[in-house]
Design a protein that fits this description.
The complex is a heterodimer.
Chain A: E1 8-10, H1 15-25, E2 29-32, H2 38-44, E3 51-54, E4 64-66, E5 72-75, H3 80-85, H4 87-92, H5 94-101, H6 106-109, H7 114-120, H8 127-133, E6 137-142, E7 145-150, E8 155-157, E9 160-161, E10 168-174, E11 181-188, E12 199-207, E13 213-221, E14 228-229, H9 231-237, H10 244-257, H11 268-288
Parallel strand pairs in A: 1-3, 2-3
Antiparallel strand pairs in A: 4-5, 5-10, 6-7, 6-10, 8-9, 11-12, 12-13, 13-14
Chain B: E1 2-9, E2 12-19, H1 24-32, E3 50-53, E4 56-59, E5 72-74, H2 87-94, H3 104-117, H4 123-129, H5 141-155
Parallel strand pairs in B: 1-5
Antiparallel strand pairs in B: 1-2, 3-4, 3-5
Helix pairs in contact in B: 2-5
Classes of the chains: A alpha+beta, B alpha+beta.
Chain lengths: 302, 157
């Protein structure tokens, strides 16, 4: 089994210091959060960093806070397990908790962070479609300044984000949402756990008392180089009353909008077909609420 | 490229000079000599390397030894109290919940973490919590039964 090679190791106390280390030490550096991607890359994918900058001593990068203006901020070093079990997230954005719960195992989720997951930019990442469905924004900081990028625009391709080497994602903020917001994330994979998504579907919409849907967002994972919005599909449902028939039509359109490839896990045709099925299910599940939202997947409580 | 670290191992203070790139798993097994924790896959998929760090269940093959600085690490060696086995260990023996035993330290550590968090898990809870611990021998049934039985006994204490 491969082993890691020597590297220099820094544990800065501020974001600015961390960013400066990358700028000053030049290429060959990597940030370390939970390590569940970086250490595997060093062992299995030939990554040989010259130096590693551990972010875990920087205060203020963790925690989940509900802000006075109705937004919710999740620190970049928040682990998947914390998101999965957070009472405020389970209450307000249960589909986000759901997506975090789909990642790896308990062991992985106790280390994997939301910031590291975004920075790793895997097209099949489970949390990304849910964040995009919630219109989440990423705060990116370096020694010289900061900027905000929507998660929707954060990814450029497999393994590529818009961040440069010395930039650090510090937090993700979900804008204020309507109390009528419902959502669902379905990870379609052959194994119940410890699997990568063949496809991922995240939906979010405001469900009126008359079952009319507005603010519809449908986001597909693992069927394009990045997570993608299915905008034509959204338009089919926007302002309409949700029925099983309409959900099926929206699913068919989402299948047409997806751009899957055939790989070791699945053929493109099968992925496309499953986008249709799972989009329909996600829309219908979201309407019946979290208590029953595990209809087609599994019933999980710890 | 080395760091002097202080940490606690199974309740005992430890101080060591650790190369930056050394994995926690290898620090435990090769340098300190506590070999109860096993390497199954090296990629965080099998859970044989499961240990507790600051009360959290993690895979030690994905953590650097230097990240243990200031933390408390618990391995399988600390599970029994001298000759007194932990109820999970007793039940694993009673139920024959192991064959080759390689997954067993990780299973026990993971199961203990579950019961600390949820003393009355359902079978579904147990199976999903242990999803990160793979076993090639037993087919899991006896492991699950042993965990549920241990949980029941621990609830009567």
């Amino acid at each position: 089994m491969k082993r890691t090679e020597p590297f220099d190791f820094y544990q800065p106390a501020t974001v600015a210091e961390a960013s400066r280390l990358l700028k000053d030490n030049g290429p060959g550096g990597r940030f370390l959060a939970g390590g569940t991607d970086l250490v595997i890359a060093m062992k299995e994918k030939g990554l040989l960093p010259k130096y590693i900058v551990d972010l875990k001593r920087v205060p203020g990068l963790g925690g989940i806070r509900e802000n006075g203006d109705g937004t919710m901020t999740i620190g970049a070093l928040t682990t998947m397990y914390t998101i999965e079990t957070s009472p405020v997230i389970k209450k307000k954005y249960p589909s986000l908790a759901q997506s975090a719960a789909e990642v790896g195992s308990i062991q992985i989720r106790n280390r994997a962070t939301i910031g590291g997951n975004m920075a790793n930019a895997t097209p099949s990442a489970d949390v990304a479609p849910s964040l995009i469905a919630l219109n989440a924004m990423a705060k990116i900081v370096s020694a010289v300044g900061e900027r905000t990028v929507s998660i929707e625009e954060f990814f450029r391709g497999p393994g590529q984000s818009v961040m440069s080497a010395d930039e650090i994602l510090t937090e993700v903020t979900i804008p204020k949402t309507s109390p009528q917001l419902v959502g669902e994330y379905i990870k379609f994979s052959p194994r119940d756990m410890m699997d990568l998504a063949y496809i991922g579907v995240a939906v979010a919409y405001n469900l009126g008392k008359d079952k009319m849907c507005s603010g519809v967002r449908i986001v597909l994972g693992a069927v394009a180089p990045t997570p993608i919005r299915a905008r034509n599909s959204e338009a089919l449902l926007e302002g309409k009353i949700l029925t099983e028939e309409l959900a099926a039509q929206v699913g068919d359109e989402a299948a047409r909008e997806s751009k899957p490839i055939s790989d070791v896990r699945s053929s493109a045709d099968y992925r496309r077909a499953m986008v249709g099925v799972m989009t329909k299910r996600a829309l219908l599940n979201a309407a019946v609420g979290p208590a029953q939202a595990w209809l087609d997947r599994r019933d999980r409580r710890y | 490229m080395k760091k002097q670290i202080q940490f606690t191992l199974n309740g005992t203070r430890a101080s060591r000079e650790v190369p930056n790139h050394r994995l926690l798993l290898d620090l435990l097994r090769d340098e300190i000599g506590v070999t109860g924790t096993k390497e199954g896959c090296g990629t965080g998929d099998c859970g044989a390397c499961s240990v507790m760090v600051d009360g959290r269940l993690i895979c030690s093959c994905l953590v650097l030894g230097v990240e243990a600085e200031g933390k408390s690490v618990d391995t399988i060696e600390g599970m029994a109290e001298g000759d007194r086995l932990h109820p999970l260990q007793t039940k694993f023996l009673e139920h024959a919940a192991l064959q080759c035993g390689v997954c067993t330290p990780g299973m026990l550590i993971a199961a203990r973490a579950l019961l600390a968090q949820n003393p009355d898990p359902s079978e579904t809870d147990v199976r999903y919590w242990l999803a990160g611990n793979l076993c090639r021998c037993t087919g899991y049934q006896k492991i699950v039964e042993a965990v549920l039985d241990a949980a029941a006994e621990m609830r009567t204490r």
